[in-house]
What does this fold into?
Amino acid sequence: MSLHARVRTQLGSLGLECDISVEANVTVAVLGPNGAGKTTLLRVIAGLVPLDEGHIEVNGAVFEDTATRTWLTPEARRVGFVFQDHGLFPNLSVLDNVAFGLRARGVDRKTANTKAHEWLERVDLGRYATSRPAALSGGQSQRAALARVLVTDPHVLLLDEPLAAVDASARLELRRALREHLSTFTAVRLIVTHDPLEAASLAERVVVLEDGRVTQEGPFGDVSARPRSPWIARVVGLNLLHGAVSSGALLLDDGSSLTVATGVQGPALATIQPRAVALYRQPPDGSPRNVLRCKVAGVDPEGDRWRIRLDGPFPLVAEVTPAAAAELRLAEGGEVFAVVKATEIDVYSV
Amino acid sequence: MKRGVTRRPLIGLVVLAAIAVLFIALPLIGLLANVDWSHLPAQLVSADVLTALRLSLECSVIAVAISLVIGVPLAYLLARTSIPGRRLMRGLVTLPLVLPPVVGGIALQTAFGRTTPIGTLLDHFDIVLPFSTAGAAIAEAFVAFPFLVITVEAGLRQRDDHFEEVAATLGARPWRRFWRVTLPLAAPSIAAGAALCWARALGEFGATITFAGSFPGTTETLPIAAYSSFEGSGQVGMAITLSLLLLAISVLVLVVLRDRWLGALR
It folds into this structure.
């Protein structure tokens, strides 16, 4: 099973323009900031938002094609959509909610209820069968919504911010349960999230969507190690620089340059781990290192590593221990020298 | 709201508000003071009262049924779709709210009277609306049906169509979505609208007497019977008994709807 979509659609100020392919047995996470068009992408695939131009097919069956004026109704697409708010019908019991999709597809009440019960047991909600959705916690309601779509055996599973409506304490457990259920489901799986941790733990492949465009895709490890956009670099906690390499120096767009150790030539991106940025009150001398005169723009204590935002030739984040921060008497507006070894700068082609 | 500068209300406003309360309360007190309590039970079960009561219930229930069958779909179209002429339709639907009921009765007569095209057509099927029980029900429906449409439309507007979308992705086709999702979720507003519509139909007088007349057993509903005893035969006692009955029903409707209407103001 597979999903191929070429999506062009304008919704208010958001122009969604992306191509996406998902193979079976691989969970793909669409990762991006709020307002990037992630939910719209899912709604387009489900048939809730029409394409302006494009093509969507699943297992060779065309859902929508603007060239041939093909359009399948949402109910004909066999798409399992777990909405961000879970969308459980408030007037139906949890069991009737889970049985709803089967009943809608013509399964008789008895069979539908039996199957719904089985699924409620699988997601550990058997004792809530007769409850109303309002009686469920965020995590329970998420599991009920998941059971409700999985019981219908959809060809495509769409999860919109699956853990957003769940409180933090229940997230770890739910993420584990979710990963388990996803692994037993063989069809196409597409998850939307703004949380890199969720993408990393639930998906094998990540598609970064920003402002309606795909900016990067690949295994999460690759994407997080070598981000291609400032947003993804920030959420994975890396400094991202953009410039061009020429004879051992990375010339940045702002005119400054850094000594680098790389075989890459021409336009390039470079990342620097915040903990690889050393801070000094006096400019150190010696070895071929990059020394940048900076002003402290902000100090964010985060546990035993403090993140220091720096204003230099370009913005930079350094990570130091609280003890080092105290010793350096780091305060907003103060002057420091940031030192980065050439070997600590990871350079890769654009 | 009850704090700061508005805690001590202006004396002049208090006086006027008290007059307002008395204005509503005094007639009701007058009514209750003039009830002949000793003869009340006998009067309530007298043939005349029971006939009028049965007829009133019949006509008002038919009026509510008509309003439900055609009013809910209209409310749905007005609330959830963007069909052309929506504003005009909404204006038209609310017109009976402000139209003098007598005018409604005369208008019905000019549309469905025996000599009109529609009346002639209905005559072929042996259906006569003017001065018949069916006509009384139609007149009540005409006046009461806006209450249902407006209440249901407001109820449908409170929610967007998110749950209909959910149902669609679960494989439910449009009619199933309407029956299984839209209607059940709108049930509270449909019930409230039906109750209001019924109360209005039960008290309907002007359109009914103009279109259907006042024939005991056929079209003489409770309000018409109250008016005839009061004005025509001078049986003030009977008029008061019938009024008391209508008052009791109105209070009952208020109690049933109190959470919905008064609760919202609390």
Remarks:
- The mean pLDDT of chain B is 89.
- Chain B is about 80% helix and 0% strand.
- The first helix of chain B runs from residue 11 to 33.
